[in-house]
Each structure stands twice: as C-alpha cells, then as structure tokens.
Amino acid sequence: MAAFSTRRLSSYMVLGIPIAWIIIFMLVPYGVLLTYSFWVKKYPLFVPAFQFGNYITVFTDPQYLRVLLRTLKISALVSLASLLLAYPFAYFLVFRLKNQSLRVWLYMAVIAPLWVSYLLRAYTWKSILGTQGVLNSFLMSTGITTEPSTIFLYNQSAMVVTLTYIFIPFMVMPIYAALEKIPNNLSEASADLGMGPIRTFLRITLPLSLPGIVAGFTLTFCLSFGDFIAPFLVGGPDGLLVANVIVSQFGAALNWPLGSALSVVMLFIVLAIITASDRLERFGQQGH
Amino acid sequence: MASIIELNDIRKVYGGVIVGVDHVSMSVEDGEFVTLLGPSGCGKSTLLRMIGGFEQPTAGQIVLAGRDVTYEPPHKRDVNMVFQDYALFPHMTVGENISYGLRMMGLPRSETRSKAVEALDLVGLPEKIDQKPHELSGGQRQRIALARAIVRNPKVLLLDEPLSALDANLREQMQVELKHMHEKVGITFIMVTHDQTEALVMSDRVIVMEKGRVAQDGTPAELYDHPETPYVANFIGTTNFLPARVLSRDGGSVVVEAGGTRIIAEVGGALPEGEHIRIGIRPEKLHFAESGASGPGNTLEGRIEEQIYYGLGMRTVVRLAEGSTVLVDGLLPEAVARTTLPEIGSNVRLSIAPHNVRVFAAEN
User: DSSP H helical segments within chain B, as ranges?
Assistant: First the structure.
C-alpha cells in the first residue's frame, strides 16, 4: 500500500510539471484573453463586463471583416501555391529520383531555410521584389522594362510569394512522408491491371497521399493565418492581416477587449481547421 | 499445344556490369504450370518482372501469343501478376480491388460486378466483398490478390513467390489450392519460388536457375531422378556426393571406385578410365542391407554416427570406411519399433541399385 502510494506520488510529480506548465502558460492566458474579450473599453481603462459588443464589432464592422476575409484568402492562396509547388517536387524526389544521396540533398535544400531566421527570409524577398531589387535589375538589363517597376512589392501577391517561400517546407515534409510510405508495387499492380500512368496516379498515388496533402495544407494555412511580419515587410497598405490588426489593438489603438475578441475568433477558426483536417486525415487513413 | 509465351535469348545487365539474367531462352505452352526455381539472386524474379513488363531486358525478345511485347508497358500486356506481398490497394474494398482491372476493359457496370462476384466465389470468399484488405488475414489477402489477377482472364498469370508470406500449414494447403485453381481456370501459370517443395508439388514443369542461367528444365520427376548437375541435385532434394574414380566401362554402365569400394552406375556418355568424378546418391535410395547377405547391386560399409528422428522417418548419418559420411533416409513402418533399428556405433552395410547412382563431373 505504501509502495503503491509512493509510486502514485512519483507519477503525479512526473505529470505535474508539464500539467502545471500547460495550465500556467496556456490555459490561464487563454482564459485571460477570453475574459478580456467581453470587457468594455472606457478610455483610458478597460472595464470588466459580460457583453458581446466586441464580437459584434468584429463581424459587422466592414473594416475588421474585410481583414478577416483577406487573411483567409491569403492563407488559402499560400497553401494552394505551396501545394502546387511542393507536390510535384516531393513526387519527383520519391518516385523519379533514383540517386539516393541526391534525393537527401534536394530534400535538405528545402528544409535547410527553416534554420535561417524568419525575418531574414522575409527580408530577402524585399530585396528581390523592390525597385532596386534583383527582379527589376534583371528586367532592365534584359531590356524588357526600361525603368524599375513598383508593381512587385508592397501588395498581396508579394505577400503570397513571400509566405509561400517561407512556409513551403511544411508542405513538402508531410507530402514527402506520405508518398514515401506508398509501396512501389501498388503502382505496379495498377499498371498490371491495365491502368496507364495518369490513371494510376489519380486512382492510387493521389488518394493514398491525401493525408500528407491535408497535413501540409493545415500547417501552411494556419501558419500564414497567424503571420504578421510578411504584411509588415512586403504587404503594403492593403496588405494588413488579422494578426497585424490584433497587434495594433494591443498597441497603438489601445483596445484590448477588441483585440482579445479578434484573437478568440482567430483561435476558433484555426481550431476548426485543425479539427476538420484531423477528421479528413482519419477518413483517408481508414484503409491502413 | 502452341506456346503462349516465348523468351528468346534474354539478357539483363545492371549498370553495364552486373549480369542479372544471362542468355535465357524458354517457351511455355498454353495452359502449362511452369515454375522458375532458384535461390535469391538467381534472376528468376527479374525474368518474371520482364514478362510482366516492369523491367526491360537489355537484349532479347519476349513473345506473348505471337506478338512481340518486349518493350510494351505493363498496362498493355495481357498478363497479370500476383505480387509477393499481394499489393492490394489499401484504400479500396475487396470488391473494388477485384473490379479495378475490369474498368479499363469497357464492360458494362453490371457485368463488372458479376465478374468480381464470380472471382470471389472462385477463391471462396464471397462474403468479403465489402471489406478492406487490412481486415483480412494473410491467407485471405492472398486469395483476393489471386482473384484480382484472374478476373481479367489473362493469357498468362504470373506468381511472384505467392506463398512465401504465409505460415507453413497454410502454405501447404494453398499449394494444393493453387494447383486446383490452375486446373479449373486453364490459364497458363508462371510461378517464381525458392522453395523446392512448392515447385515439385505444383508445377507441370520446373526451370531451375543458377546465376542468371537455366540450370535444368524438366518435369519435377525428371529433375528429381535425373539431375544434370550437382547444383540441381542438391537444390532439389538432398544428395550424397562422393568423390570417385572411373575404373572401367562396360556398355551402359560404369564401374567406379568410391567410398572405399567398387560401385556400379548406369550411365550414358563417355567417361575415360582413370577420370576423377563425383557420384551422387539420394539418401532415400540407400537401404540397410542384411548383415552378411550380399544384396543386389552395390554395397557400402560404414558405421552409424547419428540418427535424426523426424516423425515420418529416420535420417541416419553413416561414416563410410574411407572417412566420408552419407545420409540415409528411411521411413519408419509401424511394424518396426525404433529400438530394433541399428544403434549408433554399430557397423552397417548399405545397398544401392546401379540405376540410382548419378555420375557428375569432379568438383573444381
């Protein structure tokens, strides 16, 4: 009995630290955020209350709704662009490249930028797309344009390009892993049963790699959804995302209740996406 | 019967240096069950994959039903393969797996369904049609893989070590089942295996391969009773090899000196006197002779060193007078109690009929 309770005590202690960590650094801050989102702003103070005014503002004020929709659109475009670039790349690495060491090198080439500072990578695109940038110099030296163009930088496409570049490793990794798991003899069996390469891809390889696609889509979407540096560096005036608005609510605008309400909405959108993708992934994995 | 598939001087070289398949020619008749037998790395699987279209030969020609298919992709060949680990599509049901190959044949939907059901009936698993492969046992998956390949009614069915993933009991049962299946559907079967029992039990003809070449091609009985090389003699069944020297030749038989005595062997072909050779004797063709009595044929003398009981019979290790050992296999009839058998350490005489002695070239 004594031994039993000692063991129980030690197991509590082992679990206690991470649980305390989660409570203090995750649940409490979320609770604070949620509480603030119901408060009222009375300059220069925030007054405790329970009302939904902040949420109504988020969903009715076109200013905030527009930012929310823009963020969803940018995130979707980033995920889509990442998918269209990452899938063929991963497919090539797994199924077409015979040279094992070259495969590892190319894979590392995609992963390695993750070890470089995020800020640096975002800044890179500023120097590529800017008026004094690499792209403009190239266009002028080849005579395609005569003077530096400003259309590349400070807009939404610059943001999509930058975010795609930054988050594409998170698309490549799960797709690569999913494709690598598909036994080679399944495509052989498909060919053996009369299906050409395209049909084999559509009926066998693509469905079996769906969990990787879903995982990659979720990661890139959620990461872009919460980004606030790319809009700051390359986004320009119409490129603000939800995260930027939240930052300003807690800063210059000094409206913590509204900022909290925006954060809570954002949190729920991300949770909804993760739940949906989890369901989808499980659905895809039923066959394994 | 006409030949359904012909391989003409097939060669497969990897990276310009490693020879996988070396000048192999063979012809398989319509409806035959042919097995490619050999150890791993002998080129048998490569050969099968070339027939299936998954690999291309470096040189040579593959003719399927009169048409050159050497460089045709797999989806355009009228052959189907049962893969070693079945390669069932995990995201499809059993029914979808089986009808997968029918989709491209332009059949109406109802006929596709009825054909799939028919194929499932054939392998005895009609109730599994809506299950996923991961819900089935190994033996059931094996049958589904077979049904999926047979349903297209191919000209040739290829089986790549089809039973290797099953446990021993199930394997034995499936050997017989596959053989019956072959008789029932009448499709030509070409199987690859490294298991000699499997090859002997199931096939009409066995092609033994060694290092990318055909070592011997014949019926199971021909291979077992008349192996042409020591390799075949040892790969199919067990053989006692004894170094020997030719003493004299007399018509259809030859007298050699081996195991410390004179042995007569019935052989054809020229053997110069004094030539060093090897003789091969199957363990179950050796018999214990009554002591004193001189039995018919040849007699070897030795001492029993070890006895290995394996239920059905007894394997005895006998050390011959001149030093080498031979194995003797004998069934244990009910009447013979184990105690009445010669004991370890006792001297015995072994007899062997001249027509059961094989003659091979000496070891290099």
Answer: 44-52, 94-100, 109-122, 138-150, 168-185, 196-202, 220-225, 230-235
Domain count, chain A: 2
Asked if pLDDT for residue B159 goes beyond 80, the answer is yes
B174 and B166 Cβ atoms separated by less than 8 Å? yes
**Above 60 in pLDDT, residue A138?**
yes
Residue A3, pLDDT > 70, answer: no
Closest CB from A191, A208, A288 relative to B73: A191
CATH number at residue A239: 1.10.3720.10
Residue of B nearest to A286 (CA): B91
Let me know whether A176 and A251 are in one domain: yes
* Cα separation, B208 vs B35, whole angstroms: 8
Q: Could you tell me the pLDDT band of residue A90, with boundaries at 50, 70 and 90? A: very high
- Please tell me which residue of chain A has the smallest CA distance to B148: A193
Kindly state whether residues A29 and A73 are assigned to the same domain.
no
Identify the H or E element spanning A81.
helix A62-91
Burial class (CB in 10 A: 0-12, 13-18, 19+), B331: exposed
> How many Cβ atoms sit within 10 Å of the Cβ of residue B322?
15
The answer on A56 and A25 residing in a single domain is no
Is residue A132 in a domain? no
- At A162 the three-state DSSP class reads helix
Q: Do A194 and B152 touch (CB under 8 A)?
A: yes
Instruction: Give the ipTM.
Output: 0.83
Assess whether A105 and A198 both reside in one domain: yes
Cβ of B73 within 8 Å of Cβ of A286? The answer is: no
Confidence of residue A285 (pLDDT cuts 50, 70, 90): low
- In 10 A of CB B113, how many CB atoms? 16
Q: Are A15 and A109 found together in one domain?
A: no
CA distance A207 to A102: 27
Q: What percent of chain B has a predicted confidence (pLDDT) above 90? A: 53
To the nearest whole Å, the CA of B172 is away from the closest chain A CA by 26
A182 and A106 assigned to the same domain: yes
Chain B nearest CA to A192, separation (Å): 5
What is the per-residue pLDDT across B24-59, written as a single tens digit (0 to 9) for each? Answer: 999 999 999 999 999 988 999 999 999 999 999 999
Amino acid residing at B278: R
Residue A191 in domain:
yes
Q: Is B104–A204 a contact, with Cβ atoms under 8 angstroms apart?
A: no
The pLDDT of residue B169 is: 87
Task: Give the nearest chain B residue to A196 (CA atoms).
Answer: B75
Is residue A146 included in any domain, yes or no?
no
Chain B residues touching residue A282 (CB < 8 angstroms): none
Range of the domain at A11: 1-36
Q: Nearest-CA residue of chain A relative to B156?
A: A192
CB contact under 8 A, A194 and B81: no
User: In the structure, what pLDDT confidence band is assigned to residue A45 with cuts at 50, 70 and 90?
Assistant: confident
Distances B80 to B25, B98, B358 between C-alpha atoms, Å: 21, 12, 40
CB contact under 8 A, B87 and A286: no
Joined tokens for residue A150? 């400003």
Residue A124 placed within a domain: no
pLDDT in tens, B329-355: 887 766 555 556 677 888 888 888 888
- The model carries a pTM of 0.82
Q: Is residue A224 predicted with pLDDT exceeding 50?
A: yes
A32 and A86 inside one domain: no
Q: Do A263 and A221 share a structural domain? A: yes
